[in-house]
Structures are given as structure tokens and as C-alpha cells.
Amino acid sequence: MKLLQRAGALAAVATLSACATQAPAPHVTADLPQHWQAPLPHQGNQTELANWWRAQSDALLVQLIEAAQTASPNVAAAANRIAQSRAERVAAGAVLAPSLDAASSISRTNQQSTLPTGTLSQAALQASWEIDLFGANRAARNAAQNRYDSARAGWHDARVSVAAEVANQYYGLRACEQLLKVAQQDAASRTDTAHLTELSAQAGFQSPASLALARASAADGSSRAIAQRAACDVDVKVLAALTAIAEPELRRQLAASGATAASTTTTASTDANAAAGAPSIAIAELPASTLSQRPDVFSAERAVSAASADVGTAQAARYPRLTLSGSVGVANFRTGGDNTKTDTWNIGPLAMTLPIFDSGRRSANVDAAQARYDSAVSSYRATVRQAVSEVEQALVNLDASAARSSDAQSALQGYRINFSAVEQRYQNGLASLFELEDARRTRLAAEQSVISLQRERSAAWVALYRAAGGGWTAPTNSPAADSAASTH
């Protein structure tokens, strides 16, 4: 009869254990398009995304990105999250193994009995172990592991974000410098025109109204140049704050690399594929292949797995807990100069705790964990949709800027020729100042349009780099990412 009772109890435990492991799926699918809807900028150029910055032949840009990543509080916070999640993973895994503690005590007693007054000293090793019948501790360990993987991906995502931000600021500064040169050249041209108009007015060949217009145009050109210089100064200060490089040193480095940047820009202006000095990025035709490079998508996926494990932990808390403890030690009783030594040990108790009534607390915890899981699934799918959208937007902007580049260059060339002709006619007295100023405005707008298009194209390349995950790869079991994070 007792044998049947024990068999029934074991069967009940096995049944409960099977019920406790019914956590939701740790991996879910997201709807992905079969192919990108926008054209891919491959054009036979396969560039390794992780080393894309170094492929641009701009050592200063690489240096600025590395400095910004070192100084970034977001990267530092991500590294701290790695350290915290690593510790939590170790703690969660340690619960699965027995624990061992050392204990010692000493006391002097005087009892109203036949025992004499004496000093009792004891030392023992005490062990305890929770037998993980229903997988609660294993689920907690899995959740901690997933959060650790997510933290490592978050560190890479922070670095990619900083790199993209610095690159955008750097390209913006270079474009601002080009616009400043155009503004300065335009201001000098307007000043020369005003001087010639003044001479003509003094000789009686130009009216006072024309002279006033020429002077107003010169003042306007000077004002534009001053405003453009101020915008460039602001860009330098923002870049200094991002990189934590002293502004005088940063300006020195920018000036030193200015000649290289200028030659790169000149080459870029005649090549639609290399506008703003940015080489092509190889993007896989299958969206799933590209999105696997994104650390934020991987992090969201790991959040789903962690939430699934949390549901398992909450479910297991509704079932019995089985613990085993024991100790081994020595004791010494000293009285009247005599020592009495004894060895002690015990195994047990083997204790089982069975939840009976908690006013629905454990059931509510399961429901809350399930709700967090559903939220994680929704967030993961939203992250995937956003990732697809970001890649598509970058591809569209790249394709549009490439298509516009040739037209913009042709328009600029034509407006330059027209302005030179009108200026020559004005100097010979065959064109009015109004015609000259109109030709100047159209040429200036075309100059600014070409530079803005180059800036737009470089921003699209940076956006594509960011949308493609910056060359990040899923973490492996090696500690490489940990050591990298610990050094930044």
C-alpha cells in the first residue's frame, strides 16, 4: 500500500513538472518582405560594412568616431549594462548548484544540571540545495542569459549610433565649409561689382539707383558669408562636444585634413556613386539577411526569449519546492582543563514547500509575466517593421540623389556659363545690373544645390550604414565582446 502511495506521489510530481514547463514560444516570427522594394546600390562594389569608415580614405573621420565612442555616455552606460547583466547571469546560474557555507560559534554556559560549566566551540560546513523540479531556476537562468546577450547587442548598437551621429556631423561641417567658400566667393564678386558700379556712377554711366542696388547686393553677400561662417563654427563646437577633443586641437586637425577633403569632394562631384566621398555598401537582396546584422533587432528578439523564460519562472512558482540541506563539523567542550571533542554530521531535512493559498498572488504574477511577453513580442515585430522602413528610406534617398546628381551638375555648369556671360556684358555696358543680379542668384542657388545634394547623399549612406546594423554580428560564446566593452 505504501509503495502505491509513493508511486502515485511521484506521478503527481511528474505531471506538475510537465505543466510547469508550458511557457510561450521563446522565438516568434515577423512578417518580412521577400525583397527590398527600393533599388539596391550594389553596382558591383562589395564593401565590408564593419570597416566602412576606414574605406573612405579619411583618417580624421575614423579618429573622430573612435574618440566619440570612447567619450560617449551612451556607450559607457551600455558597457555598464553588460557588466550588470553578466553578474545577474552568474547569480541566476549559481542557484542551480548547491551552496556551501562555513559556520563557527563559541559559547560559555552554566546550566543547572549535572553538566559542569564549560566553553563550547563549534565549526561546521553547511550545504543546501534546491532541487529544481519544475524548472523555475533554469528558466531564471535562461532569462538572465538572454538579457545578457541583449545587453551586449545594445553596446554595439550604441557604438553604431555614435558613429553615425559623428559622421553626419562631420559631413555636415565639410558641406558647411564648401558653402562658406561659395558665400565668400559670391561676396567678393558682389563687392567687385559694387566697386565697378561706383566708378561708372561717378563717371555718369550708372544711375544712383543702380549704385544703391550694387551696394545693397554687396552688403547682402557679406552678411550671407558671415552667417555661413557662424554656422560652421557651431558645427565645430558640436563636433568637439561629441568627440571630447579640445576645440583648438580639433580645428587644427580639420584644417590639416582640409586639402584631402577638398580633393575628395572635387572627385565626388563628378561621380554620382561616390558623392561626398562615401563608398558603396553591400546590402543583401533578402531583407532577413540584412536585418540579422542589426543589434536592436537581435536585442528585441532576446527580450522575447527572456520574457518567455520569465513566464516559465512565474508558472513554476505555483508548484512545490524541494530543498535538501546537510552539514558536517566538529565540536569541542572544555571544562576544568579537559577537552571533549566530537564530530557531527547530518543529512536533511529533505523539505518540500507546497503553496496552498496566497490570495491569487502567484496566478497574478503569471498573468503579468504573460502580459510582458505579449508586449515584448509586439515590440519585436514593431522593431523589425521599423528596421525594414529605415533601410527602404535610405535606399530611396540614395537612388534619388544619384539620379539628381547629373542634372544638378549640368544645371550648375549652365548657370556658371550664363553668369560669366552676363557679367562680361555688364562690364562692357551691354547688360543691366538687374540682369547681373538675377544671373548671380540663379548661379548661387545652383552652387548651393549641388553641395546640398552631396550632403544629402552622404547622409543617405550614413543612414543606410545605420539601418544595416553597422556590420554588427550576433554574439557568440566567446568573450570577445565582453573584453571590448570593458575597454570602452
- Rg result: 37 Å
For the sheet with most strands, the description reads: 4 strands, antiparallel
Q: What is the typical, i.e. mean, pLDDT?
A: 82
Measure the end-to-end span: 67 Å
| Inertia-based shape | elongated
Q: Describe the strand arrangement of the main beta sheet, using strand numbers.
A: 1-2-3-4
Structural class comes to alpha+beta
Q: Count of helical segments?
A: 12
CATH-level-2 architecture of the largest domain: Up-down Bundle
* CATH fold name of the largest domain: Outer membrane efflux proteins (OEP)
Strand content: 5-15%
- Which H/E pattern describes the elements? HHHEEHHHHHHEEHHH
Number of strands: 4
Topology:
Blueprint lengths: L1 H19 L38 H13 L1 H22 L4 E11 L8 E14 L4 H67 L5 H36 L3 H10 L1 H12 L17 H5 L3 H22 L4 E15 L2 E16 L7 H67 L5 H35 L12 H7 L2
Antiparallel strand pairs: 1-2, 2-3, 3-4
Helix pairs in contact: 2-4, 3-4, 4-5, 4-9, 4-11, 9-10, 10-11
Describe the structure.
The chain contains 12 helices and 4 strands; from the N terminus they run αααββααααααββααα. A 4-stranded antiparallel β-sheet has the order 1-2-3-4, with no helix packed on it. Strand 1 and strand 2 (118-131) form a beta hairpin. It has 2 domains: 24-96 and 135-318 and 361-486, Outer membrane efflux proteins (OEP) (Up-down Bundle), CATH 1.20.1600; 98-131 and 320-354, Outer membrane efflux proteins (OEP), CATH 2.20.200. The chain starts with a helix and ends with a helix. The chain is an alpha+beta fold and 488 residues long. The radius of gyration is 37 Å and the shape is elongated. The chain is 65% helix and 11% strand. Helix 10 (361-427) runs antiparallel to helix 11.
